Fold:
Amino acid sequence: MEIEDVRSDLTEVLYTADQIEERIRQIAAEIDHDYAGLDLLLIGVLNGAVMTMADLSRALRSHCEMQWMAISSYGSGTASSGVVRILKDLNIDITDRHVLLVEDIIDTGLTLSYLVQNLKNRHPASVEVMAAFRKAEAIKRPVDVRYVGFDIPSDFVVGYGLDYDGRYRNLNGLGILAPAVYS
Ligand code: IMP
Structure:
């Protein structure tokens, strides 16, 4: 789905598909460099990180393994509940593995803090985080994110894997959802 298809639902277009693709490529090059010679395990967080994972993994020039976790998210609302529940866990042992957690967006950072701690408890060799988007609020929090696609305003955004009530995930760019759509 293109930005023009839902332009009237958005108050602002933040990034086009081309801009996101270019930034993901840059990050992939950094990851190739940083993990050279290491056995990289990407862990994607369903459902939001599907697009980021697909694009990032294909932009890498080296091998990587991909695994997925599913956690509870906002449901149909637009505010973080702070309650994180694992709906689908990993089906492999990550002891001594180099883990890169692939996230769609960091808002309050609550989800990320929980996940990073949960993964660290499994004794991997390392855990780092890549997020396609990070909201302004999250920067104030002590969450260590090694790779960030774009720092964005704190508004509710949709597209590139991010939904509102199950819709807009397949929008290829990122935009701010008009409050009229969800109020
Ligand atoms: P956090 O725990 O507040 O950092 O929220 C993280 C999760 O909430 C993300 O992985 C998304 O699934 C969802 N989320 C946060 N902000 C947005 C948004 O603006 N649009 C759609 N989903 C969002």
Remarks:
- The chain is about 25% helix and 30% strand.
- The pocket of inosinic acid is lined by residues 48, 73-74, 80, 103-112, 156-158, 162 (CB under 6 Å).
- The two ends are 23 Å apart (CA to CA).
- Residues 130 and 147 are 5 Å apart (CA to CA).
